[in-house]
Amino acid sequence: MTKEQFKNLVESYEKLVFTVCYQLVQDYQEAQNLMQDTFVSAYSHIDTVSEQNLKAWLVRIATNKAKDFLKSAYYRKVAVSEDLSELDVFRNENSPESLYISGESADYIKQAILNLKEPYHKVSILFFLEEKSVDEIARQLCRPKRTVETQIYRARLMLQNLIKEGMCQ
Fold first, then answer.
1. Measured CA distances, 55 to 15, 39, 58, 89, 92 (Å)
2. 139 φ, ψ to 5°?
3. How much is the average pLDDT of 128-134?
4. Of 21, 50, 115, 117, whose CB count within 10 A is highest?
5. Same domain, 147 and 132
6. What pLDDT was estimated at residue 89?
7. 88 or 125, which is more confident?
8. pLDDT at 12
9. Boundaries of domain holding 106
């Protein structure tokens, strides 16, 4: 196959190959990379396929590249580290601390945090207002880390409910 023929092949099937990769990995940049890998592999083995099976063959290569990526240690490591981040578990856009930081109803939120009863009162002040880590709070209050995590989670839910009620009134 000449370079011109391969160029035409890429132009004909690049959208299809990209779509297959993107549907599997759900990441635009990785789908672009996998599309390129697909065509590199295809170029080196293009002599082994007939013209009539070309489309299905390219789709199969793309599918296998995407599956290999999803099985890779790199992908699993990145996905796990993003999912289990301490801040991601407890802090999000609608969380009490982010609303506090952004200034939305700051006095109301601060008062709600200060009015929480124990065991959530101290933990909430340290986490939401003083922005201490779970490990720091556990050491300071002499509580197990998992207990502190649970208390922060429950306090956050209580505060979110209070904030929603306050904004609806």
1. 12, 12, 5, 43, 43
2. -65, -45
3. 82
4. 21
5. yes
6. 45
7. 125
8. 92
9. 86-168
